[in-house]
Amino acid sequence: MKAIILLEDGCEYTGTAAGSQQDVICEFVFTTTMTGYVKLLTDPSYSGQGVVMTFPEVGNYGVYTGQAEASRPWLSCLIVRTLNGDSQDPRSDQAFLDWLQQYQIPVVSQVDTRALTRHLRTHGSLRGKLIHLQDGTSGLTAAQKAEQLSEIRAWQMSPQIPLVSMADPRHVAAEQNREPGSVAEPERELTIAVIDYGAKESMIKALAHLNCQVCEFPHDVSAETLLSCKPDGILLANGPGDPAVCTEEIAVIRTLLQHSQLPVMGICMGHQLLALAMGLKTGKLPFGHRGGNHPVRRLADGRIFITAQNHGYVVLPEGLEQAGAARISYESVQDGTIEGLTYTGLGRPVFSVQFHPEANPGPEDTAFIFEDFTTQIREDQR
Amino acid sequence: MPKDTSIKKVMIIGSGPIIIGQAAEFDYAGTQACRTLTQEGVESVLLNSNPATIMTDAEMATKVYLEPLQTEVVERILLEEGCDSLLASLGGQTGLNFAMELTESGFLARHQIRLLGTSAEGIKRGEDREAFRSTMEAIDIPCIPSGIAHTIEEALALAESISYPVIIRPAFTLGGTGGGIVNNPEELKEIAETGLEASRVHQILVEKSIAGWKEIEFEAVRDADGNAITICSMENFDPVGVHTGDSIVFAPALTLNDHELQLLRSASLRIVNALEIVGGCNVQFALHPTDGSYAVIEVNPRLSRSSALASKATGYPIAKVAAHIALGYRLDEIRNEVTGCTWAAAEPVVDYVVTKIPKWPFDKFVHADRALGTQMKATGEIMSIGNTFKASLMKAIRSLELNDYGLRQPALFKLSQPELQEQMQHVNDRRLFAVAEALRRGQSLDQVYQLTRIDRFFLGKVRELVLEEERLALQKNISDSELRQAWQDGLCDRRISDLTGLDRELLHKRRLRLGLVTHYKMVDTCAGEFEASTPYFYSCTDQENEAGRTGRHKVVVLGSGPIRIGQGIEFDYCSVHCVQELKKLGYEAIIINNNPETVSTDFDTSDRLYFEPLTEDDVRAVLENEQPDGVICQFGGQTAIKLIQAVSDWGYRILGTAADGVDRAEDRERFDEVLNQCRISRPQGHTIFSTEQAQEAARQLGYPVLLRPSYVLGGQGMQICYNDQDIAEYMAIINLNIQEHPILVDKYLMGVELEVDAISDGVDVLIPGIMEHLERAGIHSGDSISIFPAYIPDKHRETIIRYTRLLAQQIGVIGLINIQFILYNDEVYVLEVNPRSSRTVPYISKVTGLPIVRLATEVMLGRAVSQLGYGEDLYARYPAVYAIKAPVFSFAKLHNVDTVLGPEMKSTGEVLGLAQTYAEAMFKAILASGFRFPKRGEAVLLSVKDPDKNELLPLAWRLYEMGFTLYATGGTAHYLLRNGVPANSCRKLQEPSPNTGDLLRSGKIKLLVNTASGNDPLSGGFRIRRMCIEHGIPTITSLDTLTAVVECLERNLTVADLTPCDIRRFARLVAASRQNKLPLNELPMQNQTAKENVWKRHQTEEVFTAGQD
Questions:
Q1: Which of B261, B487, B773, B839 pairs as cysteine with B753 (C-beta 3.0–4.6 A)?
Q2: How far is B221 from chain A, CA to nearest CA, in Å?
Q3: Closest Cα of chain B to A112: distance in Å?
Q4: For residues B208 and B240, what is the distance between their CA atoms, to the nearest angstrom?
Q5: What is the ipTM for the molecules in this complex?
Q6: What pLDDT does B634 receive?
Q7: Is the pLDDT assigned to residue B1101 strictly greater than 60?
Q8: What pLDDT band is residue B673 in, cutting at 50, 70 and 90?
C-alpha cells in the first residue's frame, strides 16, 4: 500500500506503508541518530511527532524490549528509507515491524528521506499528515489535497506531557554497587525526586546506579507531595512539546525553588522548564537538534563532548544575570545555543543541561553529569 | 589552544613505494597534510621515494625530496633544511617507524626537533604489544589472551598455556606480514619463524583465536587538549580472522545495537585518551556475536587505510584535520570545510551505506594462494555509496571490474555441494559469491551462518539480491514493476540484460521512459542536517537530484579505479593533474572514480566528484546528468580507455585521441597497418585463437616467443614461451577468462628496451626524455629498472623521435602517447603503442620538470605543441643528470608467487634515485627499493640457468674479487670452478641434508642470484626463491640487475656518500643541460659494456635450450 506524507506547505513525499494503517497528523521532524531505533522511538519526547530517520537502513537487528526507554513507542509515525521489518537476528525478542504493529505505529518506507530532511531543514519542522492511499490510486486529487491541507493547517499540537507522563508515582530502589570486600565507609543512599514530563528510563537507571533511590512523580505533582518523600535532590526530566505552555508545571518548580533548599538538576524539557521558572525565555529552533553527534563545549575548561540531543526548543540567552545569576555551562559548538545552565546565585547546586547525559541512544560521553549531581548533593550536605 | 606559531618548518615523511598493505592512502594523507601546512603558512619539507604520488609534486611543499627512506637520509635532510618539527604520522608504518627510531636514538632531542602529533611514548603504547596490553589493563579494556614471544620455544610454551588455535602476529609490521592462525605446534613453528623474521623488534604476539566474533573498527581523532571524537564505525562482512585490508567492510556498522555500538565507541575514546593520541587513530575490536563481550584487537596510532576509507565514507577530511591538530589547533577551532558552517568537533553522520571491497591480485598471480587470513594480500580497494544496502553492494561488485556485475555467478553452478561448503568455510577472495551461490541453491541463512559466521542481516540481503537475479535469469521478459525493482536494488542495465537476455540499449530506453532516471545525492558529513556545498555525489534511485547542472563548460575525467598490479597510483596522479589543469583553464572539472585511497576522490580536488563504478552504465548515467562538453578517457589507465568507444557511441565528444585512434593502436591487425604505413618494423608475429595455431605460429617464428592477449595493461597474461608445452599451459590459463580479443604470438627479441612518453597534437610531438630499461627485453617495463636519460647512439635517438612523430600522426594522437621500442641488432623496432598516459608519466614529469599531463590537457583542448613553450621533439637530449626508477615488489605477502620477472608485471610500486652520477643514482634507486646490499665478506648464493652461465662468469669473479664468499648449486658451481672462480658447491633442495635449504635457513646467505625460465611451482628454483623471500634474503633474478648491483658494490658507496637533491633543483639541472649536444656526464660504462656483450652474443649464438639446474 502506498502512503503519502503531506506537509502543511503542500509538499508531498510518497512511500510504501506498513504497520498501522491509520492516517495521522503530527509535527514532522528528522533525527540523524544512526543506531538505537528502539531506544529512540520509545523516547516520550517524540510524542506528537512524525520521525524521519536520516539513516537509511532501519530495523536491522530487530527489537530488544529490554532496551526500551518507556513502556511503548510514543511517536506518531515513522518515516524511513528502507524498513528491515523482519529481522533475522536470533537474539531479538521481536521483529521490528511486529513491534511497531503491536503499538499501532504507522510506518512509511522507501521515502526519499534525504529530500524530506532537506526540506525540513530549510523550512523548519512542519505539521503534516500521513495519508494512506486506496489501492489503485496514485495520489490525492486537487480537492482532496486542499481539504487535507486545511485540516493540517488547523491542527495544533495539544500539550503532550499529560499524555506521556505516568499516572501514579513509583519508587525505584537504589542499586548496591559496593565493591565486595571494600572497607571504606559506605556512602549514604540518596533519595532523588524525579518529575516525569516524559522521562526516559535510562535517567532513572543512571540515578539508581549511583546509589540513589528514585521517587518518580507525574508531571502534575504538587510541590508538597513531592517534598513529602524527603528527597535529597530533584531531577526535572525530559518530555515532549513546547515548554512555554506548561504554566502549571513551571509554577510547581518555582514553588520548589522558593520553599526548599534542595539541589535541582534539569534535563532537556526539565532544563527548559527550570529556566522558565527562573524567569528566562525559551524559543523554537528552526529544525531542532536531533541526533547522536552534537558537540557541546563546556565553558569552564573548553572541553568538547559529543552528546545525544533531541530538542526543538532552546533557552534564550537574555537576562541570565537576573535569573539566579545563571551562567552558561555548556554551549552548542555548531550554533552557539545554550546547552547547559548553572544558577550560581541560589546557594545550592541548581543546574541543567539541554542534551541527554543518559544517552540511550547515543554517546555516553557526558554520563558523568549524574555523578556530578550526586557528588554536589553530598558536598552540599556536608 | 590555537595554532602553535613556534612551528616554522616541518618535515613530512611519506610512506615510500606502494606495497601490499601500504598503498595510495598515504598519498591522499600526505597531500592533505602538505596543503594544510602551506595554507597555514608553515614551510614544509617532504621526503618520499615514490615518484608516482601527487604529494611529491614540486609545488606541494617548500622542498620535495625524492630520496631513499633511510634513517641517515632523514637525519641529513632534517639538519640541512633546518626543520624544527617532524610530522611522521601521515606516512603510514614507514613514517611511524622513523619517528620511533629518531626519538629512541635521541636524534630529535639532540637537535631540538619536535615530533608533531602523537608522542613517541603514545606510539609505543599503541604499537608495542606489551606496553599496549598494560595500558589497556589500566583502563579496563579487555584484550584477547595473549603473550609475547621472542623465540620459537617461548611461542610454543605460550600457545600451550593459551590453548590452540592461536594467532601469531609480528610486532611492528605492515599488512600483518608474517602472521597467521595455527592449530598445532608444527604449524606454529613454521609461522612463528617467519613472524619473528618479519618483526622489526623480533617479537611476535601469540594470541587466542577468537574466530567467529564480529570485527568492528572505529576511526577516532583527538586534539592535544584531549578532545576526542569518533569519525566512523566500520563493520567487516567477514568475522575476525581476515585482515581488515582483505575484508569486505561496511560503514557505518549495520548489525550492532546501540548498546554494543556505544560500548565500542566509548572504549575507542578511552583508548585514544590513554594513548594520548594527537591526530588520528584507528581502533579494531572483536565483538562476540551474541553475549556482548568484546576485546580490542589492535590500534594504529596514525592515519591508515581505514582512515582514508572513513574520510571518503563520511566526507570528513581526517588527514587535513590531523594536520591542523599537529599544528596545535583544537577540534572546535577547525572548520568543517564540507559544510563550511560547522566544526570539525562534530561527529559525522551518514544517510547512506558504504561498501568497501578489496581488489586482489589473484587474476595476475594465478598460482598464488588465494586464502585470506591475517596477512593482507589485496593491492587496492574500491568503495561504493548507496542509500540502500543492496544498491551499495551491487555498485561495489561492479566497481571491481570483474566479468559478472552481480552476485549470481554461473561459474559457481558446477561446484559440488562439498566444494561449495569448502569455499564458504575457508575464506578466500570469492567467498561473497560462494555464499550467494549457497543461498541461491536454497541453503538456509542458519546453515550459511554456521559455516561462515557472517551476520544474518548481511546474509538476508545477499539472499534477496541473488534470488532476484535468479528470478530475472529464469524469465524471458520483465514487467515494468520488476524492472523498477531491479533498478532500485542496484542492478545496472547490463546486469539486467545479462540475466534476462533482453537488449541492453532497449532496456535503457525503456527505463528512462518509465521515468527511472538516476539521480545524485550529496555526501555532506551531516546527513542533510546542514546546508553543504561539497560537490561530492553518489547515485540513487530517489526523486530528488542534488547534482543539478551548472551553466559552466564542463569536462568529465574518467578515473582509474582500484590500485592493482599494472594500474597503480600513477593514473590517479594523471587524473588529478588533468583536473587541476581543467580548473585552471576555467572548465568545470568533473571526476568519476571509486577508489577511496586516492587524491582524485578528495572532495576538493575536482569541481565535482562522482563516487561511482567505472562501468558503462554508471558512467553513462553521470554523463546524462551532466551533459558535458567533453570526456577525457586517456588518464585513467585501461579502466578509462576501455570505455572510450561506448562514450563516443553515446554521442559525447571525446577530448584527445578519438576512439578509432585508440582502436588502431590496440587492435593488432589495424596496428600492423599503421606500422606498415609508417614503414616501421616490429617483432614478427601472428594473431591466433587456439593452442594449435599458437604452436604452429611459434614454430614458424622460432622459439622463444611472447604470448599475450590484445588489449592489455600491465602485461596481464603475458608469457615468454620456450616450447610447445609452455604454450599449452599458457593457453589453458588464459582461457579461464573469457577472451573477446585474439591472442598475439610474437618473436621474442632479447634486445634493449627503450620507452618514451610524448605529447602530441596530431602533427608535432614533444618527448620529455627517452628512458632505457636496464633489464633486457622480456621483463615487463613496469618491473625493469628504468634509466633516464637513455644512452644510445645518436642515430637511434633520431629514429625514436621520428617514429614517435610518425606514429602519433598516423594514429591521430591528441594528448599522450606511450611507445616502447626495442633496440636489437642495431635496429629500432616498435614493441607496443599505448595511446594514453602511462606508468612513467609522473616520473618523467618530475625529473624533467615538464608538467606533461597539464600540457597534454591543454593540447586536448586545442593548443598546438608548438604553443606550449617547451619546443618540439626531444626536450632533454643529454641532461647532465640521472634519474633511475626501480620497481618494488610485495612478494613477501603473497604465498606461492614466483619472484622471477618476466613479461607479466609483478611489481606493486616504484622508487626513484636522482643524482648527478650514474652510480649514485643507481645506488639510491636500488637502496630505496628496499634491497639490502650484502657486505663484503658475506656469502652469496648463485644458481642460474645454462644460457646465463657464461654471462655470470665475469660477474661472479668480480664478486669474488670484492671478497664475497660464493656458494653455488650443482651446475653453476661446476661451471664457475671449471672457469677458475672459487665457489662452494651445495646440494639441491631435494638432496640429503645439508643442502641448499639448510644453507638458506642458516642465515649465512645475504644474496641470492637465481635465473629461471618457466614458472613451475614445483621446480627447485622456485622453492629456493620462495625460501629466500620468506627468510628476507634479497633475490636477483636477472643478470642485468646483478650487473648494476655489482657496480654499486664496487663503488663502495654508503648512505653517507649520497647527496640529497630536491626535485626542483633536479629539474633545473635538467633544464640547464638539456640542450647539450653531447653527453657531459659520466657514461655508465660497465652497463654499456654488458649491454654490448648481450647484443654481440645474440648475433652469434643459437637459441638455447632452457634448463635449470
A1: B773
A2: 12
A3: 6
A4: 12
A5: 0.96
A6: 97
A7: no
A8: very high
- Name which CATH class applies to A2-157: alpha beta
CATH 2.60.40.3500 fits B891-915+917-1057, yes or no: no
For residue B373, which of B231, B238, B229 has the smallest C-alpha distance? B238
**CA-closest candidate to residue A353, choices A304, A314, A312:** A314
Residues forming a β-bridge with B519: B540
Domain A162-381 matching CATH 3.40.50.880: the answer reads yes
List, as ranges, residues 308-347 from A with C-beta within 8 Å of B: 333-334
- Give CB contacts under 8 A, 24+ apart, made by B499-508: B499/B406, B499/B408, B499/B469, B499/B472, B499/B473, B500/B472, B500/B473, B500/B475, B500/B476, B501/B476, B502/B477, B502/B478, B507/B483, B508/B617, B508/B620
Q: Do B258 and A115 touch (CB under 8 A)?
A: no
Separation of alpha carbons B359 and B242, rounded Å: 14
B345: closest chain A residue by CA: A295
> pLDDT below 50 — which residues of chain A?
none
Would you say residue B1098 has pLDDT above 70?
no
What CATH architecture is B355-516? Orthogonal Bundle (1.10)
Lookup: cell for B264: 565500542
**Can you read off the three cell numbers belonging to residue B415?**
561446484
Place of cell 598516423: B810
Q: How far is A96 from chain B (nearest CA, A)?
A: 13
Distances (CA, A) of B1081 to B227, B775, B916, B1078: 56, 22, 8, 9
Interface test with A, best of B529, B540, B542 (most A CBs within 10 A): B529
By the CB < 8 Å criterion, does B218 face chain A? no
Taking the Cβ of residue B862 and every Cβ of chain A, the question of whether any pair is shorter than 8 Å is answered with no
Task: Locate the chain B residue with the closest alpha carbon to A67.
Answer: B259
d(CA B1071, CA B876): 7
Nearest Cα neighbor of A55 from A45, A44, A67, A41 is A41
Cite the active site residues of A: 268, 356, 358
Can you spell out the DSSP letters for B645-709?
HHHHHTTPPBPSS-HHHHHHHHSHHHHHHHHHHHT-----EEEESSHHHHHHHHHHH-SSEEEEE
Q: How many CB atoms lie within 10 A of CB A10?
A: 11
Chain A interface, best mutation among B258, B342, B350, B463, by max A CB count within 10 A: B258
> Are B257 and A64 an interchain contact pair (Cβ–Cβ within 8 Å)?
yes
Let me know if the fold of B355-516 is the same as that of B550-655.
Answer: no
Given 3.40.50.280, 3.30.565.10, 3.30.470.20, 3.40.50.2300, which CATH number is that of B118-143+210-336+344-348?
3.30.470.20
Mean pLDDT of B116-124: 95
Residues 357-376 of A with CB under 8 A from B: 359-365
> Is residue B220 classed exposed, middle or buried when 0-12, 13-18 and 19+ CB atoms within 10 A define those classes?
buried
* Beta-carbon separation of B531 and A89 below 8 A: no
Architecture of domain B145-209: 2-Layer Sandwich (3.30)
Residues in contact with B800: Cβ distance below 8 Å, sequence separation at least 6, in sequence order: B754, B756, B767, B770, B821, B828
* Domain definitions of chain B by residue range: 9-116, 118-143+210-336+344-348, 145-209, 355-516, 550-655, 684-748, 891-915+917-1057
Q: Which CATH superfamily is domain B684-748 in?
A: ATP-grasp fold, A domain (3.30.1490.20)
A58-103 pLDDT tens trace: 999 999 988 899 999 999 999 999 999 987 788 899 999 999 999 9
* DSSP single-letter state for residue B298: E
Burial of residue A382 (CB within 10 Å: 0-12, 13-18, 19+) is: exposed
pLDDT in tens, B742-778: 788 889 888 899 999 999 999 999 999 999 999 887 7
- β-partners of residue B965 are B939
The SS3 call for residue A343 is strand
